[in-house]
């Protein structure tokens, strides 16, 4: 039987049915041709999913993208990406980050988007390096020449080193938490230039859900 994954058909599927379909379908199935990842994102509300279902959704999308389907997270609209992260519970985020491959996929995508959302007009002559420690993953943001470059791993000495959990980082990067509040509640730790670290996210256009 040919699967129907038109926008109208996806809208009629329950979240569980949609996830099950994505887990079963082959990346080269003709039904996936023209499927918009944003339609899938809008059809899923993490609050209506179980603890492990959110991770299952991202894992299924990743497997299809790896197989050649046009469903990579990089294609998802920033507002939709921010929405699904903001509506995911702490337990759902923990289920994502407990899978090393899935955690890397999501964190890599978030940091990639930081380069794209950098506000060069706000940077001026700023020249600085910030290291982010998220569990055992370390990312480096280099600000210079009114540009932002993201590296995985450390290549330069940091002006500030920021440490926080994956769940809190994802909330921060999608506009669902503020650095000062996270710092005041002990969820964000900074070594080095605290003032610069506190205002670092103002150098970016943070997507809103």
TrEMBL record:
GO cellular component, one term: cytosol
Origin: domain of life: Bacteria
Annotated ranges, domain SCP2: 120-204
Coiled-coil stretches noted in the UniProt entry, renumbered to this chain: none
Protein name in UniProt: Putative sterol carrier protein
């Amino acid at each position: 039987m040919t699967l129907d994954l038109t926008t109208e058909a996806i809208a009629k599927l329950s979240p569980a049915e949609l996830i099950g379909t994505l887990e079963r379908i082959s990346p080269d199935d003709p039904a996936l041709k023209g499927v918009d990842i944003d339609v899938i994102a809008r059809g899923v509300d993490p609050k209506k999913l179980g603890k492990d279902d959110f991770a299952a959704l991202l894992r299924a999308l990743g497997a299809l993208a790896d197989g050649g389907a046009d469903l990579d997270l990089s294609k998802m609209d920033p507002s939709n990406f921010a929405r699904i992260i903001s509506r995911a519970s702490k337990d759902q985020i923990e289920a994502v980050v407990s899978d090393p491959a899935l955690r890397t996929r999501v964190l890599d995508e978030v940091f990639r988007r930081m380069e794209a959302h950098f506000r060069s007009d706000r940077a001026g002559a700023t020249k600085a390096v910030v290291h982010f420690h998220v569990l055992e993953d370390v990312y480096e943001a280099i600000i210079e020449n009114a540009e932002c470059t993201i590296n995985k791993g450390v290549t330069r000495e940091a002006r500030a080193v920021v440490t926080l959990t994956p769940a809190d980082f994802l909330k921060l990067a999608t506009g669902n938490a503020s650095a000062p509040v996270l710092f005041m509640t002990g969820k964000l730790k900074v070594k080095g230039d605290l003032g610069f670290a506190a205002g670092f996210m103002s150098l970016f256009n943070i997507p809103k859900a």
